[in-house]
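Before the break, one more example. Copy the sequence into your notebook; we will annotate it together after we see the structure.
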Amino acid sequence: MKITAVETVQLPAHPRHLWVLVHTDEGLTGIGEATDKVELTKTAVHRFCAEIILGQNPLENEKLWAMMYDSANYTGYMGAEMRAMGAVDMALWDIKGKAAQMPVYDLLGGKTQESLRIYNTCISYGKVRDREWFMEDAGELAKDLLKNGIKAMKIWPMDGLSTRYNGQYISRADIRRGLLPFQKIRDAVGDKMEIAFEGHSRWNLPMAVRIAEELEQYDPMWFEDPIPVDNITCFANLRKKTKLPILASERLATKYQFRELFEKDACDIAMFDVSYCGGITECKKIAAMAEAYHLPVTTHNCGSPVMTMVVAHLMMSCPNTNGIETVRALYQTFDITDVGVDIRDGHLFLSDRPGLGIALREDVLKAKDTIRQVTKEASHDQMFAVTGDPWAQSPGDDLAGVLLPKEE
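Here is what the structure looks like once it is written out:
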């Protein structure tokens, strides 16, 4: 089997999401997804990933991941290239599952539990306005989530208070004001609702400690990324200064960055984004590394039903799964797939459909406003694409360099 084309799909109604289709000569097509900064990712899919994987065997996902990663390291390991790699890797696993007539979770080792506990990140999208709701009346939002079987939620009420002093100072009074949604939830539903605090890396270390001291009374599920994750030692220091469970971080990429997080004992829960980290292949390894440190893992996921299924297949196979992030404002409003996400009583259930078990509907793909771009041929020699060396070939040259020195 060979990869014959790489395609991107954009839907004007959902501008922050990009879907990637990998096509093969045996008629199997796999799907992946990337979120945010999609024009950059789209370019990387076509001008970086496609040039490496076209003509290759899609079942050799470990080999292809290494080829893409080795090429990306010429300019660094994160960013558009990594998000593109993540979407492509998801699609390769989808193809692998379809070829084997097995769901991806079985290829990854099988189910470790029958369903996955979810929490709802309270984003607003379309007609679902959960973000405004948690800022205005978080107690009523908690009641509504519980009525729908969802027993955990994530909110970020402190972000706006970080802007005046760029996260370098906040008064105790302002912290208490910012934490009012937590108080309203506890007053409305008590301990029936788990509440996670999202920090979005808005604070310096002393202010994060000050916020944690006020937050402790509400017994949050975790304290997520309150400081930038570019200094793991600071995360380790934060963990020593608070009783709150520290979660890190959707802002890290690859097993190499998570290695330092684990070695420095800097978190209680590890979170990765399957797109940002380069896909299922890499995240399965990160989860296994966390397991060696007896740490649970969860996922960052602000994607469509496609991304949610990707996350679910991966996490279903990880014995240290803590649960998964879902956004009802997204999975309830994205009417674009052949099946929906099966969420009942606060848990996500997977079928035994082969691959990821989900696809974009044909009518969505054929809609007049759908933007599709296909790459079928590499623009230059594949080996130069793999090396990542931009100076190996100059404009107008057939071949500006050689792979090996000439023999005498």
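Residues 9 and 372 are 5 Å apart (CA to CA). The chain is about 40% helix and 15% strand. Try to locate both features in your own notes.
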